[in-house]
Amino acid sequence: MLKRILIITGIVIVGLIIFFNWFKKDTKKHSPAATAHYAENGLDININYCRPYAKGRIIFGDEEAGALQPFGKYWRLGANEATVFENKQTLLFNNIELAPGKYGMYAYPNRDKWTVCINKEWDRWGAQEADMTQDVFRTEVIPNNDSPFQEQFEISFESADSSGNFNMVFHWDKTMVKVPLSSKK
Predict the structure, then answer these.
(1) How do strand 60-61 and strand 69-70 relate by DSSP bridges?
(2) What is the DSSP letter of 66?
């Protein structure tokens, strides 16, 4: 009897592992994985995230209006896994010092400001809200809600200006957010 229970338990566990891996792979067809990379002025930054499509939906807005990402609610800055921000050198992230490391990055979008968060937990799957006690810091930036339409969510970097300052850019639908970055001097 014990042997039968162990065999059934093993089969269930293997089945769950196969299902979970299939589910992760299937969801990436709709929100493919992407990497944003910046390598200038002695900095090396990588962001791994997934890129959902707008598909005619209301992206940012009021929950009552059916927005995919309601104002004031947690967003992992993409889809599927947590968005991972990795920097190899100390940098200034909107004038806040960030030590080299691998971090989870998420946001609370609002109409007039976004709160962007850097968190110690980076290896997470799904839309559950990050553990705020693991936040390294939070910072606020101003969105531009009249940008050219962008069907698929994108994170990119602008080139540095003459003083070495540059922006990390989040762009989806008609919303663009720029987060100032620079090397620590």
Answers:
(1) parallel
(2) T
| In the predicted structure, residue 123 carries a pLDDT above the cut 90 | no
Q: Where are the domains of the chain?
A: 1-30, 32-183
36 against 13, higher pLDDT? 36
Cα separation, 15 vs 19, whole angstroms: 6
pTM, entire model = 0.83
Burial label for 174, CB within 10 Å (0-12, 13-18, 19+), is middle
Phi-psi map region of 61: left, alpha, beta (phi>0 left; psi -120 to 50 alpha): left
Collapsed DSSP state (helix, strand, coil) of residue 9 = helix
Contact assessment for residue 119 and residue 83, using Cβ atoms and an 8 Å cutoff: no
Backbone angles phi, psi at 57, to 5 degrees: -85, 160
> How far apart are alpha carbons 91 and 52 in whole angstroms?
28
Instruction: Kindly state the greatest CA–CA separation across the chain.
Output: 74
Q: CB of 177 within 8 A of CB of 143?
A: yes
Res. 3: pLDDT tops 80:
no
The pLDDT > 90 percentage for the chain reads 73
Q: pLDDT value at position 71?
A: 97
